[in-house]
Amino acid sequence: MIEPPMTAQYKTLDSRRRHVLKAGLAAAGLDAAPYGFTQGKYPSRPMRMIVPSPPGGGPDIVGRLVAQHLTQRWGQQVLIENIGGASGQVGIQTVVRAAPDGYTLAFTPPTPITIADNFEPRPPYNAQRDLVGTALIGRNPALIVINSSVKATTLREFIALAKVEPKKLNMGSPGLGNALHLIAEIVSAQAGIQMTHVPYKGSGPAVVGLLGNDVQFLVQSAEAVKQHVQSGRLRALATLESTRLDAFPNVPTLAEAGLTNLNIMNWYGVFLPSATPKEIVEIWEKELLSIAKDPAFIKRMHEMSFDPVAFGTQEFARMMAAERPQWTAAIKAAGIDTKKN
Q1: Hey, how many other C-beta atoms are within 10 angstroms of the C-beta on 7?
Q2: Residue 62: how many CA atoms within 13 Å on its side-chain side?
Q3: Per residue in 112-150, pLDDT tens?
Q4: Helix H or strand E segment including 81
Q5: What is the pTM of this model?
Q6: Is 190 exposed, middle or buried (0-12, 13-18, 19+ CB in 10 A)?
Q7: Residues with Cβ < 8 Å from 254, sequence gap 6 or more?
Q8: Strands 196-199 and 170-173: what pairing?
Q9: Less crowded by CB within 10 Å, the N or C end of the chain?
Q10: Are residues 276 and 287 in contact, defined by beta-carbon separation less than 8 angstroms?
Q11: Residue 289, Cα to own-chain centre: how many angstroms?
């Protein structure tokens, strides 16, 4: 088990602040001596799971499923709280500032964790220093979708259409610097096309914008657009997965559609403040990995076109360490503007 990274702030706690933290942990049913733990008393009250985006997107959908399973297991409510803004940074900052007692955590995609440092202004936190990833529990298969009014039935036809009048077509995203925005930019660069980027405040609003034809192109989670593709209001041109999705057997992979597969994972993980006692981090890791292997959870994830994944704390940390430079290189190669207005 990786020891949670300790910030200088908590390394230098004076005796008074240690006493305050001890009292807070005791109120939560923990015995801190220092950061000690008494088995069987945690959790003793409801918990806040911060989803750093508006309702309706992949993180919200999967987060609520995870919260439901945890509530059933623990007999204590895990309450979802959607705190969007600044591509997830506002919600993550809420968790960073929370008491490290195991009762406030983040359920988040990579955007505010491994991507945000590539953009200016930089986040008001250091994800590597201020947070500990307890487990990665799911991944989000994505589709390239367009409004059905666009005169293209394949990705090749859409690329040809976009090349005729550069920047005439609008590309939506859940927000500047969001993982799905970057994937869309990378696909566009690979295809040699230019579109006008229209950022929204989350996946739900971005899908609404596509349905209203305010934007014509979107990379989005399969679950978030599935009903609209099935109804014919949206058209799926390709999946970002290396193989076709069971829910969309007729939708080709990016390689089958004429481009190169990206092999990018848009994951969902759980994070706690880095000063959280090691024993609590281990409880979260154990419970989340158990949920990820639960047949009922796996079945429901597949029904919603998500993939359950079980990465523990150490494996999750290694994956994020490898992923950060990969995002930086991809952003640079695609020529993405990293300055936020």
Answers
A1: 16
A2: 38
A3: 999 999 998 899 999 999 999 999 999 988 999 999 999
A4: strand 78-82
A5: 0.77
A6: middle
A7: 144, 155, 187, 238, 239, 240, 260, 261, 262
A8: parallel
A9: C
A10: no
A11: 17
Element spanning 143, H or E: strand 142-147
3-state SS, one letter per residue, for 200-225: CCCHHHHHHHHHCCCCCEEEEEHHHH
Reported residue count of the chain is: 341
- Alpha-carbon distance 235 to 161, whole Å? 15
* Residue owning tokens 């609008």: 170
Asked whether 123 and 338 are in contact (CB, 8 A), the reply is no
Q: pLDDT tens across 215-265, in order?
A: 999 999 898 899 999 999 999 999 998 889 888 999 999 999 999 888 787
CB atoms within 10 A of CB 215: 25
Q: What is the 3-state secondary structure (H, E, C) of 222-288?
A: HHHHHHHHHHCCEEEEEECCCCCECCECCCCECCCCCCCCCCCCCEEEEEEECCCCHHHHHHHHHHH
Instruction: State residue 40 phi and psi, 5-degree precision.
Output: 90, -10
Q: C-alpha distances in angstroms, 282 versus 42, 129, 132, 143, 272? A: 12, 18, 11, 35, 11
| CA dihedral sign, ordered 321, 326, 332, 336 | negative
Query: Kind of pairing, strands 131-139 and 307-311?
Result: antiparallel
